[in-house]
Design goal:
Blueprint lengths: L8 H20 L5 H30 L8 H10 L2 H31 L5 H18 L1 H13 L11 E6 L6 H8 L5 E3 L8 E8 L2 E7 L13 H13 L2 E7 L8 H14 L4 E6 L7 H8 L6 E2 L8 H18 L1
Parallel strand pairs: 1-4, 1-5, 5-6, 6-7
Antiparallel strand pairs: 2-3, 3-4
This protein binds guanosine-5'-diphosphate.
Guanosine-5'-diphosphate binds next to helix 7.
Length: 332
């Protein structure tokens, strides 16, 4: 998510005060009657300093997208990574500062106009003091927004319109190999708060249709009872994204997981996901005991056969995706 650069209170005030100084110099060198000069100069300093601060904060507020308008997937993501409430609170604090500054800008301008020339600089100093204190009051919120900027920098970019397949299966069964085979460009790796290796997203334009494939290493590759609450929530979030789940079996069992455990995980995922699941038997080129594999294949509904590293069976998976997409279009 794009969050603009968040300045520190010192940076905000430096910019505001230095612009105020420039504005004051301009007034000082202009053709104003001498007796009015000091008041006009101080008025310009107050106005400029306050307005530059307001603009700085307003520009941040305008550039950050409204959380409530984001897709639920992103809302959940932001919530887990930085906390949506804290995020909204920080933006609220910026808004509070803008409103307050704009209010006392008017008050101090009025005060200057009514003060004597000798007092003008005292009034301006008082205004600057208040401005600084308001900006420092929101220091924690500015720090938090800067932290959120860093944390959300590599948030996954998801196309919510594309027909999306989420790839599941135990580690080393060939999920990322398949992902690479399915997609035209190298899949993009983005941060994902539930896994250490991130999320991989690949795209394929096929007959004017956009397909999206998502691999979440470390999430859909473990028995559900081993998951903590956050991971279970992540699974639910993935369910929002997935139109279909590709569950990958390693038919050769060379990844170290017996087909029996792979079937158990499949059943668990099937239980959690309400989306259709397509079973895919990978590493068929390494299978030694085909009867053993067949005994599992026969238990499942029209599984596909694959040798991802050899690129054999990939066309059939794309055809399945196309078929599924057509059905989806018919339904909507
Ligand atoms: P992931 O952890 O499920 O993403 O698995 P990877 O895609 O990283 O694959 C694990 C290993 O299996 C890699 O060394 C792949 O080259 C290998 N592999 C994947 N698919 C096949 C296949 O169909 N045949 C063979 N022989 N090796 C495969």
């Amino acid at each position: 998510m794009f969050i603009p650069t968040i300045p520190t209170p010192e940076e905000v005030l430096d910019k505001s005060f230095s612009r105020a100084k420039k504005a004051a110099n301009k007034v000082r060198s202009s053709k104003i009657p001498r007796h009015q000069k000091s008041k006009k100069t101080e008025e310009a300093r107050i106005k400029t300093a306050c307005q530059v601060t307001e603009e700085t904060f307003n520009s941040i507020l305008e550039k950050i997208p409204k959380i409530s308008t984001l897709n639920m997937f992103y809302q959940d993501y932001i919530d887990v990574v930085v906390g949506v409430d804290q995020f909204k609170k920080s933006l609220g604090a910026l808004k509070w500062a803008v409103d307050l500054i704009s209010k006392f800008e008017n008050q101090y301008v009025f005060k200057i106009r009514r003060s004597s020339s000798e007092d003008a600089s005292k009034v301006r100093k008082e205004a600057f003091g208040r401005l600084a204190s308001v900006v420092y009051r929101i220091e924690d919120e500015l720090n938090f927004l800067d932290f959120a900027k860093q944390k959300l920098r590599n948030m996954p970019t998801i196309d919510f319109k594309a027909t999306t397949a989420v790839i599941a299966g135990f580690p080393n069964v060939g999920k990322s190999t398949l992902l690479r085979q399915l997609t035209t460009a190298e899949p993009k790796v983005a941060d994902y708060p539930f896994t250490t290796t991130g999320i991989q997203i690949g795209h394929l334009e096929h007959k004017w249709t956009h397909f999206q494939f998502i691999d979440t290493p470390g999430l859909l590759d473990r028995p559900v009872q081993d998951m903590n609450e956050i991971e279970l929530n992540a699974m639910v979030a993935l369910e929002h994204l997935a139109d279909i789940v590709f569950y990958i079996f390693d038919a050769s069992e060379t990844s170290g997981y017996p087909l029996e455990s792979q079937l158990n995980l499949y059943n668990e995922i099937k239980h959690v996901f309400k989306t259709p699941i397509q079973c895919i038997f990978n590493k068929m080129d390494l299978v030694e005991n085909i009867e053993h594999v067949n005994s599992y294949i026969n238990q499942l509904e029209s599984p596909l056969m694959l040798s991802a590293s050899e690129g054999i069976g990939v066309t059939e998976i794309i055809a399945k995706m196309e078929e599924f997409d057509n059905e989806k279009k018919k339904r909507s």
